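Hi there. Long-time user, first ticket. I'm pasting a complex I've been working with (about 334 residues overall). I'd like to know whether the download I got is complete or cut off, because the file seemed smaller than I expected. Thanks.
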Amino acid sequence: MTESTVAEVMARAVTALERLATLGEEVEDEWQYVTDLVAVYRGRFGQIAAARAADPVTPETARAIDLAIEEAGLITDPHRAIDWLSTLPQIVLFTLGEAA
Amino acid sequence: MRFQDAAPDARHVVYAGIQADPLVGRVAALLADASHGQRLMARAVMNGERTDPAVWRAIFPALFDPVEPVLSERSEALLEACRAVAERGEQARSQYRGAIVESLTALLLARRSSAVRRERRILFDGVRAEIHPYDVTVETPASAEAYDCKWGARGINADVLDQLDDARRHAAEEGEPLAVALVVFDARRSCLVRLARQTVRREGIGLVTIETLDRLARRRATPGNSPEPGSSAR
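Hi, the file is complete. Here it is re-exported in full:
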């Protein structure tokens, strides 16, 4: 099995975040919060990708993150999408052993 | 400054039923002894779509490591309880989540104080009482505390911050120290993002997040207006 790298996993997580943000933006009153939140977590993911880009992640870790991304992809309610904009990054950071 | 039970209204009666559900107490008790990772899992499961335990074990493999049976057992118990919340349906589970955060806060505070109360209003001489009660209070004479509990950072808003700030200031005017804080079952980073756009006063309001919940159980270093436990919402 081909191992993923941190950069690859982070790229998938950013795509998932952006999808959640698009959904969350449907809550007009929360547009600013959604925009701020996705910017902050995109930045945090970017830091990790820059620092550990080529580092391999174990198949178990990659599967954990991919399943979390898949779970986030099942969200269709904009309000829950906003909650997952915070939840998904925490799972990814925890799984990679990174500080929140 | 004095404390008073909130007058029961229709919302209060319905919510009291949820607060009294043994499931709320069970999840809160498990969360009180949980690690940060386990609390993250609980948050995800209670707001997730899938309730298949195998999925959640695969998302959080470190919590179900067979070489650590105690950790694994606790994770299984928490996962089972959180799945029971998730299976209540969207409307009910959002009420359960709120009740769980309040119950968890009360449980942790009760580890250092016997004066913990729920759903209390705080009255000050010559000041109109707030309509909404405080979720959890610690009514220790000369060292009281009031907490507002939120499931997510999105629950932080100007009204919540204003109410906490008003209570703190009125208490200080009466010469009675009152520590006030938000307890948010969400990441500190998300809370800071939310707070960054708030223009109301928040000096002196503590912030306890999913990473720092255990501080609620520790004796406060400084009685009075200190924003401890937790760090400031400033």
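A couple of notes from our side: Chain A touches chain B at residues 30, 32-33, 36-37, 40-41, 44, 60-61, 63-64, 67-68, 71, 74-75, 77, 80, 82-87, 89-91, 94-95, 100 (CB under 8 Å). Chain A has one domain: 4-95.
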